[in-house]
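Batch job 17 of 40 flagged for manual review because the log was empty.
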Amino acid sequence: MYRNFAVQQPLEKFVAQLDGVQSAKPVIDGRTVRVELQLKQGADLRDIYEKIATEGTPMLGGRELQLELKKSSNEKLDQLWSSMLFKVAEAMETRQYSKIPAAMQQLEQANEGLTVHTEMDDTNVYITMSDGKASKYIVLPRIPGTLGVWPNA
């Protein structure tokens, strides 16, 4: 009960008011805070993560922040992302992050109506794909030696 009033509710209120967030539901589990997010079309994923991680620090209480993005994609975007998995996984595994924007830009140029935005910070690589109707948001943790299926991709 204390956790609900002291941490979850203030964090939920804080995240829900961020620009680009449609809804937010924080789930606190021991050493992690997982925030289930539904983003609006055109949301700035890196900015949202940064604001939660920095301005929300008192509410996180030293716990690790994890974002769980609710699906706002469509079949076309999912297929386009699937076609890039090998290139992106290879760039992540070899820490050649500069290959990701180049690969995603090629995808954008080859698919009319597709816009792709890539960003990176100290902890994650952020990719946003949009076809004007739907958006696909991807957060790839920059954890050396970790390769597998990304839960939010």
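Reviewer: the log was empty due to a logging misconfiguration, but the result itself is present. The first strand starts at residue 21 and ends at 29. Unflagging and moving on to job 18.
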